[in-house]
TrEMBL record:
Protein name, as recorded: Probable GTP-binding protein EngB
Keyword Ligase included in the entry's annotation: no
Organism phylogeny: Bacteria, Bacillati, Bacillota, Bacilli, Lactobacillales
PROSITE patterns: G_ENGB
Organism field: Secundilactobacillus oryzae JCM 18671
Keyword tags: Cell cycle, Cell division, GTP-binding, Magnesium, Metal-binding, Nucleotide-binding, Septation
Similarity annotation: Belongs to the TRAFAC class TrmE-Era-EngA-EngB-Septin-like GTPase superfamily. EngB GTPase family.
Amino acid sequence: MEVNNVELVMSAVSPTQYPTTGYPEIAFVGRSNVGKSSMTNVLINRKSYARTSSQPGKTQTLNFYQVEDQLYFVDVPGYGYAKVSKQEREKWGEMIETYLTQRETLRGVVSLVDARHEPTQDDVQMYQWLSYYDIPILILATKADKIVRGKWNKQESIIKKKLGFNKKDSFVMFSAQTKMGKDEIWKWIEDHAFGGDQDGI
Ligand SMILES: Nc1nc2c(ncn2[C@@H]2O[C@H](COP(=O)(O)OP(=O)(O)OP(=O)(O)O)[C@@H](O)[C@H]2O)c(=O)[nH]1
Ligand SMILES: [Mg+2]
């Protein structure tokens, strides 16, 4: 999709604040600092539209980005940030759970993991949880520019094994720096946001 117009239309913490337009939504989840905002910027061809930072845990709300008049990207605050209090973590959990389980217009989740490492327990939990709710998942192994090309296949195997990857889901190696994988992500997003075949309806 050629993107010209993107607008952050809402930073929400509860369902009453979600947009009511009814456009399909694709959510981005992953550990704090894994690269969600950087990926968003690559997808929409902007340098710094979604705020990126070296300080993890900055994004605290569900940020709805309206892309053209067609869909929303939902940047979900990162999990697994150690310095967040237990109370804040619980609040986060509730906000995410409510959104991911109750949002009717949600069409799929792009779940980001670090291409260099074995997924964390949080990554595994998130994947298993999304699978349980039957949400279509794209596992995106990002920061691939930080490992040599010769190791990509091995890392893919390690990541899939640890997650308990299900073949019905998708996997893409990505780098926000080189933009590798961008077209594949867009294809997945378009297939899921606009593909007519939802649950056989
Ligand atoms: N080399 C490299 N660095 C990346 C890549 N993606 C993100 N980064 C860097 O990783 C850091 C975190 O990126 P963000 O996009 O802010 O991460 P985030 O997941 O949005 O973080 P939170 O909003 O805190 O949850 C930044 O310093 C980015 O420049 C990538 O593909 N390659
Ligand atoms: Mg972010």
